[in-house]
Structure formats: C-alpha cells, structure tokens
Design brief:
heterodimer; A: about 325 residues; alpha/beta; eight-stranded mixed β-sheet; four-stranded antiparallel β-sheet; 12 helices; about 30% helix; globular; B: about 280 residues; six-stranded mixed β-sheet; 10 helices; binds adenosine-5'-triphosphate; binds iron/sulfur cluster; binds magnesium ion
C-alpha cells in the first residue's frame, strides 16, 4: 500500500475543511505500521478513506491510494466491494456499531465468505467457528449463536476482529482494535495479529500496543504526520515535541499526569501558517510562527516535521 | 452507613442455542459478589473481558434485572425504592458508559444531551442552563461552540468527554464509570483522570471505576477488586494487588502489561508503581 498526497475534507457549513492534509504513507508487504496521535487528529478519517467509507456528498477525498498498483480512489463501487472485506479487512473503532444487531455473531462472521470465496456453507461455518476460537472468545460454540447485545464490550470487539480476518486479508486496517480488552486477552490478540501474514495499519492510542506489534510508527497531529520512525527508535529517541509530550502523559505512577496544554484544533480552526503544534507550547520558538515545517529525514528512516528539532529541549514545556 | 452495599449479587442470563434459539441453560454473568463502597471512596473493578464487570455496574444503576441478592444505596434497597427516594437515587448515581456511540442520542444536539439531566432534576432558565453546559464542556476540555453540534461530528474521544460532562452535570454521589477512558488518547485520558480526581476531592464523590487497564485503575483507586468468571477473586489495596497478587489471574494480568522503554530513564510501564 502506498499513499501519496492524501487529503480528506469534510463539509462544515458549506465549506470544506481538511481532516487529513497532504499525507504520504507506505505500508510495505507484511509489515505493521502504527499510527498514533491524540483524538481528532484524523486517524480514523485516514483509515476510512482507504476503504472508501466516506460519504461523498459531505466529504472530499483527494490524492492517491495505491494498493498493488491500482488507485483505490478511482475504482467504482463494485470493484471496491471486491477489495474491501476480501483483500482489505477492517476492524472498526466502535465494535458495537460495526456489528449487525439483528444477526447472530457466527453468521455475521461467515457472511463475507459468501461474497469473497467459493466455500460451501459448512466450510464457511467451520471457518467462522475456528476464528471465534482464534480470537480467544469465551464459550465460542455458544457465542456463535448469540446476538451482539448479549456480548460484553470486549467480546464484541473480538467478534469484529474475527470478521475482519475471516477472508484472510492481505491488508488489515485495525482502528483501536484492543481498547475494550484486558491486557491478557490483548496480548493474545496481538500475538494473533503478528502471526497472520498480512500488512497491518494499526491505529491506537496505546504506546504499549505499539511497542508490542509495530515495525514502524507514524505520529499524527492535526491531519499531518509529524514524526515517523522505526518502532524502537520512536520510544528510544522521540524527537518531535508532540511525540515527547504524548509519551509523557502515560500513567506511570506519577501523582499528577502530564496533560498537553490546549486541545487539537477543530477543523475550522486549523492554523493556516506556521507549526500546527507550536500553538500548544508555552515558549514557542519565534521563527516557528512563520513557515509550516516540512517532514525532514534526520537520520535514516527517521522523519520529523519540526523546523528546529535540534532545539526541541527548549520547545518542550 | 456505607454509601453502597452489594450483597450476594447474582445476574443470570438465559442462553439460547442453535438456529431455533431454544433456552438451553444460563450464563452466570455475575455470581454471588459482595462489596461495600464508602462515601468519597474510589474502588477499581478490573478483570478479564466478559467477567461481569459491566453487568455489575448496570445492576447498580438498575439497568438490568437482578437474579438474586441485594443492592443497598445509603441503606435502602434500590429495587424497592419509590417516589422521592427513587428520584434521589437516580440523581445520586450516574454512569459513564464504555460505548459512546449508542449511549449518546445521535439526533440531539450536545447542548440537549448534557442539559437533559439538568432539565429532569433542576429547573433553571434556558440562559442558566446554557451557562452550565458551557461550564461543563469547558471542564472536559471541549470548546463551547460544540454545544450546537451533533454527536456524529465528533471523534471517538471527544464523544466520551460529552458523556462525562453529562454524568457530572448533577454532581452525583456515586459515579459508576465503565471504561471511561479506554477510548481516549493519552493526553485526554490524563486530563479526564486528573479531572475525575479533582471533582472527587471537591464534591466527595465515590467511584466504582471499571477498567481493564491496571495502570489506570492503580492511578485512580486506593482499593482494587479483581473479577474473574463472574466472581470477585481478589480484593485489596492497590499496593497489595500490584506487589503481592494472590490469584493466578491477577498475576497473569500484571505480567501481561506491555513494557515499553521510553527515553529518560525510569519511564517503563512495568515499574509504574514506584510512587505508591
Ligand atoms: N463526518 C464528519 N463531519 C465533520 N467533521 C468530522 C467528521 N468526522 C470526523 N470529523 C472531524 O475530523 C477530525 C478528525 O476526526 P477522526 O475521527 O479522524 O479522528 P481520530 O484521530 O480518529 O480520533 P479518535 O482517536 O478520537 O477516534 C475531528 O476534528 C472530527 O471532529
Ligand atoms: N443481555 C445479555 N444477554 C445474555 N448474556 C449477556 C447479556 N449481557 C451480558 N451477557 C453475558 O454476561 C457476561 C458478562 O458480561 P459483561 O458485559 O458484564 O462483561 P465485562 O466484564 O464488562 O467484559 P468487557 O471487559 O469485555 O466489557 C458475558 O459472558 C456476556 O456474554
Ligand atoms: S520546535 Fe517549532 S516547529 Fe518544532 S514543534 Fe516546536 S513550534 Fe513546531
Ligand atoms: Mg478514530
Ligand atoms: Mg464491559
């Protein structure tokens, strides 16, 4: 998967505002790319654009999303349907609403197999039942026949993961796949994700999950990637003030948690000039007000969008 | 008198199986649990996914039937409340939900969602109401311009904060928080947790804090209960649970916390307890 110059804009009161702004991203075959960032930075908007989930009457998606050489943005609905659910699996951020409330769990998991494979009914049911076991569902035989409202939050989430994996996708887009799971189940799910040979775009708030699964990490702020580096590098040597602030907010036994001052700007209030993150820093370096910093490679494979990353100590409040 | 006393609570659901959905048994979602909560106390409920944590919370709010046992709020059995004491109970106990998509009405503006409990229990002028909503939005870190928008216009984390603003609108005595921060990013999580600590001190709130994240629960609660397969298998101070876990599940829980080494020395999730 290769993404170039992707912009996603939503219509708000007659005008379009970008939630994802001119973004480039590569997901090499078989690798896991984690996208981190605060709420409202455009992570889900990015994921939804890949599988064409945006409502075209309210949303504008521009750029190039290349999947094995074809641009997904120019495909028609029928061609897209073949790819999504089959080649590309998606785990949605909100498990409860991703499931059909009127359909039994097992049946919903088996359903995509009907469109994307030529398996018989028994084989489809067998594969769905097997996946329920793979995702560590408690009482899988019983759960097969239950409806979503009869499951706990974490069980719904596992059902959604099972249905994303059922067609053995080559690319899995997982939007916060483990937020409702306790760490013991999370550990088993992450192991399952490591074992399938698919490329994964993993969206998460949880640095622990990133550290366990990702090959590369991209940190997103206000619709842009502000830092990207191999996984170990980002934790050992975070350079962008935003990445450093984000990591300081983790509960690690401190009395009071560090909070990044201010909030992610809403789409209408996105700064038009200068550094987008700079406004949340108390002592912002003067020259950052003028030019929007570009993403620069500071060491092999480590890119930072900060015009003065050498003085980040100064900038970090 | 305890604020909340749960005695031998049981919640069973019928199990239907096969295509015809015949009842073939029952799921014991909560099987004989007892605990008490004092005013201003904050107790964490952690446990495996599907172990009955949300069911316990919903039972306390009266949102699910009870198969056995009792729930006493300020000494009164909540299943027998009527009239004025029922209304006091409904005002005194609020819930923050795990799933904001179905708990926020998509057809209502944020202003109306947050003002709804105020309208039910406090009769203020529209201007007072709006001022209060703006105050609440401000405390959860949202712009007051959000008041006129609809839930779908917000990201997952922003929606969770709307739910929190609604829960604290009436300054309740007990908040059952069911995974209140698991959908939030670290900075907003930090902000919400700090804020929940602040209002707790300020208003003498008690929390039943349901979460699967032991780091978050350790941060928030002095006492922790661990649930496993519908029962409470271990309860104790956060220090004991972290450092002397008795039950095998608790030990696994602690061992599975992903460790990360962030630059700057002792920043490691595994040793997060040094401050306690
Ligand atoms: N349908 C929509 N209409 C208008 N604005 C939207 C819409 N969907 C998202 N937005 C806005 O776009 C921005 C990015 O939202 P997005 O859902 O992509 O964030 P996110 O990074 O996934 O956050 P979270 O971690 O909370 O899920 C937010 O400011 C949000 O308010
Ligand atoms: N309405 C229902 N009908 C049938 N079974 C139910 C119902 N609600 C919950 N259950 C079952 O009760 C058990 C406990 O569910 P509960 O939601 O309390 O778990 P939980 O501890 O909150 O888990 P999670 O961490 O995944 O949210 C689960 O096995 C679930 O399938
Ligand atoms: S140093 Fe300047 S460019 Fe870098 S994040 Fe801070 S304000 Fe932005
Ligand atoms: Mg999202
Ligand atoms: Mg739950």
């Amino acid at each position: 998967m290769e993404i170039r110059g992707l912009s996603v804009s939503f219509r708000i009161g007659g005008q379009y505002f970008a939630a994802v702004d001119d973004l480039d991203l590569d997901i090499p075959e078989g690798e896991t790319l984690a996208v981190m960032g605060e709420s409202g930075c455009g992570k889900s908007s990015l994921a939804h654009s890949i599988i064409g989930l945006h409502d075209p009457s309210r949303t504008r998606v521009e750029g190039y999303i290349g999947y094995r050489g074809q641009n997904l943005l120019t495909l028609c609905e029928a061609e897209l349907n073949k790819i999504r659910g089959g080649h590309i699996g998606m785990v949605f951020q909100d498990p409860a609403s991703a499931l059909n409330p009127l359909m039994r769990i097992g049946e919903q998991i088996a359903e995509p197999l009907m469109y994307h494979t030529s398996l018989t009914k028994t084989e489809r049911e067998g594969r769905a039942a097997q996946l329920l076991r793979d995702v560590d569902m408690p009482r899988p035989e019983q759960t097969y026949w239950q409806y979503p409202h009869e499951l706990s939050g974490g069980m719904c989430q596992r059902a959604v993961i099972a249905s994303a994996l059922v067609c053995r996708p080559a690319l899995l887009i997982a939007d916060e796949p483990t937020t409702a799971l306790d760490v013991t189940v999370q550990a088993r799910i992450l192991e399952l994700l490591r074992d399938i040979d698919a490329s994964i775009l993993l969206i998460t708030h949880d640095p622990g999950v990133v550290a366990e699964t990702a090959d590369r990490v991209a940190v997103m702020y206000a619709g842009q990637i502000v830092e990207t580096a191999p996984c170990a590098e980002i934790f050992a040597n975070p350079l962008h003030p935003y990445t450093r602030s984000l990591l300081s907010a983790m509960p690690r036994g401190q009395d009071r948690l560090y909070v990044i001052p201010g909030a992610v700007p809403s789409l209408e209030n996105m700064p038009r000039t200068g550094c987008r993150f700079g406004r949340r820093i108390a002592r912002m370096p003067e020259d950052c007000h003028d030019d929007a910093p570009a993403l620069r490679e500071v060491s092999p494979g480590h890119y930072v969008r900060c015009s003065c990353h050498a003085v980040f100590e100064l900038c970090h409040c | 008198m305890s604020l909340l006393e749960v005695r031998n609570l049981r919640v069973f659901y019928p199990v239907r199986s096969g295509v015809f959905g015949r009842i073939t048994g029952c799921t014991k979602a909560v099987d004989d649990i007892s605990f008490t909560l004092e005013p201003g106390q904050s107790v964490g409920l952690v446990g495996e996914s599907g172990s009955g944590k949300s069911t316990t919370g919903r039972a306390i709010l009266g949102l699910t039937h009870i198969s056995g046992g009792q729930i006493l709020f300020e000494g009164e059995d909540i299943t027998r409340l009527a009239g004025r004491s029922r209304s006091a109970y409904r005002r005194g106990v609020q819930m923050i939900f795990q799933d904001t998509y179905s708990s926020l009405n998509p057809r209502k503006r944020v202003l109306d969602i947050i003002a709804e409990p105020l309208r039910n229990f406090e009769r203020g002028t529209p201007a007072e109401e709006r001022r209060r909503v703006h105050e609440l939005l401000d405390t959860v870190g949202l712009d007051s311009s959000c008041a006129c928008k609809y839930p779908r216009e917000f990201s997952g984390g922003q929606r969770q904060r709307i739910g929190i603003a609604r829960a604290i609108a009436l300054r309740p005595k007990l908040i059952v928080a069911d995974e209140p921060v698991s959908a939030l990013d670290l900075s907003v999580q930090a902000q919400v947790l700090n804020y929940m600590q602040d209002i707790r001190r300020e208003l003498g709130l008690a929390y039943l804090f349901i979460s699967h994240d032991l780091n978050v629960v350790t941060h928030m609660c002095e006492n922790i209960m661990v649930m496993h397969r519908a029962r409470i298998v271990e309860a104790g101070s956060r220090h004991d649970i972290r450092h002397n876990p008795g039950h095998a599940y608790t030990r696994e829980l602690i061992a599975s916390i992903p460790g990360i080494n962030v630059t700057g020395g002792a920043i490691c999730a595994k040793h997060s307890c040094t401050a306690h």
